[in-house]
Write a structure and sequence with these properties.
Layout: E1 4-7, E2 10-13, E3 16-19, E4 29-34, H1 41-54, E5 59-64, E6 67-76, E7 81-85, E8 101-105, H2 112-116, H3 119-155, H4 160-174, E9 186-190, E10 192-195, E11 198-201, H5 204-207, E12 211-216, H6 223-236, E13 241-245, E14 253-258, E15 263-266, H7 269-272, E16 277-280, H8 292-323, H9 329-346
Helix pairs in contact: 1-9, 3-8
Length: 347
């Protein structure tokens, strides 16, 4: 039976646009789409994904953090095939052209003479778009600095001996069956992202029918450290680990999936309401009084960053509208059919 999963391969973070695109597909066949805004890349992938689902094949949708309705890539799990948007900011290049990877140039279906008619509009929209992203990342950087203050204040109140003891016991509980005879592989992505329409969380599509350990923790108590230790231990023991990161600080972890054990550790809201076992790190807080002003400033900066993202989205919409009349969509359709034909030979 086909399965649908939804993730983000990249995110708008305190470090600017941060990419985990290299983890989309470990091995297999990759089609990299090149072309301007509005050239039909996302629609092409959506169309192919729908066709694969009709064949009862599983599809993993990789959504764009700057437009949740747009797709940066799809993975057809059973066939080990990926189709990816290879344009900025997630510039991708093939590893083995003609063998495992193909570049599909949709840019050749753009009528440059028609596009030139909208030149000034395009240049203005790109300039404004760049300015919006500059502001977005400034707000997110400032939010990270306030979060550092929150983390410092909270961590001063934590019994870390208790936290370390809990982590040790949790490792023993999860890996009670020891090691398995393989080399563990890690895969990094985002389950949550800051988007123009707000914070979007696709965790629910990843955790269904799994044994969930819910991590309940305030900032600064050791949630990400716990998840990092459990994931590294699993890799050493030979387990494959999916690691999902925080949208603001992309090195921080909020969810891990250990596929061979059908087990999850997560601090996401979905886990909060669907857990097998609750791991409460807040019990090690000697004083749970929050600095409400810091939290208020932090949330306000995140909101400002998201509002700036929504303005960037409006400029991107202008770009797509400017490109749209110049594109030969019959040519795009022929490319779609060629890709489907090649994929089906693998089936």
């Amino acid at each position: 039976m086909s399965e649908i999963r939804r993730v983000f391969p990249g995110g708008n973070t305190s470090q600017g646009f941060f990419s985990y695109h290299k983890y989309i597909l470990d091995e297999g066949r990759t089609f990299i789409l090149k072309g301007g805004p509005g050239s039909g890349k996302s629609s092409l992938m959506e169309n192919i994904a729908n066709k694969m689902l009709k064949y009862n094949l599983s599809v993993e949708y990789h959504h764009c953090a700057s437009d949740k309705s747009s797709i940066d890539g799809i993975v057809i799990k059973e066939l080990k095939v990926a189709i990816l948007d290879g344009t900025a900011p997630h510039i991708l290049e093939p590893k083995l052209v003609g063998l495992s990877d193909d570049i599909v140039d949709l840019g050749r279906y753009i009528d440059k003479s028609k596009l030139f008619e909208n030149r000034e509009e395009i240049l203005e929209a790109k300039k404004n778009n760049k300015e919006c992203y500059r502001k977005t990342y400034s707000y997110f950087r400032a939010a990270k600095e306030i979060l550092n203050e929150i983390v410092y204040t909270n961590s001063e109140k934590v019994d870390f001996r208790g936290v370390n003891s809990l982590i040790y016991d949790l490792k023993e509980d999860i890996y009670v069956n020891g090691t398995i005879n393989q080399i563990g592989k890690e895969r990094h992505l985002f389950n949550t992202a800051f988007t123009p329409s707000g914070i979007v969380d696709y965790t629910e599509t990843l955790l269904k029918d799994k044994k969930i350990y819910y991590i309940n923790a305030e900032y600064g108590i050791g949630k990400s450290t716990l998840l990092d230790i459990i994931s590294k231990e699993g890799l050493l023991r030979g387990y494959n680990i999916e690691i999902y990161h925080e949208p603001l600080i992309p090195q921080k972890i909020n969810t891990i999936i250990i596929s061979e054990l059908n087990l999850v550790l997560s601090a996401a809201d979905y886990a909060k309401n669907n857990y097998y076992k609750k791991i409460d790190l807040n019990q090690f807080l000697r004083d749970d009084t929050k600095n409400q002003e810091d939290y208020k400033v932090f949330n306000n900066l995140i909101d400002k960053g998201i509002k700036s993202l929504s303005k960037a989205k409006k400029n991107h919409d202008i770009l797509e509208e400017a490109y749209h009349p110049a594109i030969d969509f019959n040519g795009i359709e022929k490319e779609r059919e060629k890709i489907i034909k090649e994929i089906m030979t693998l089936a």
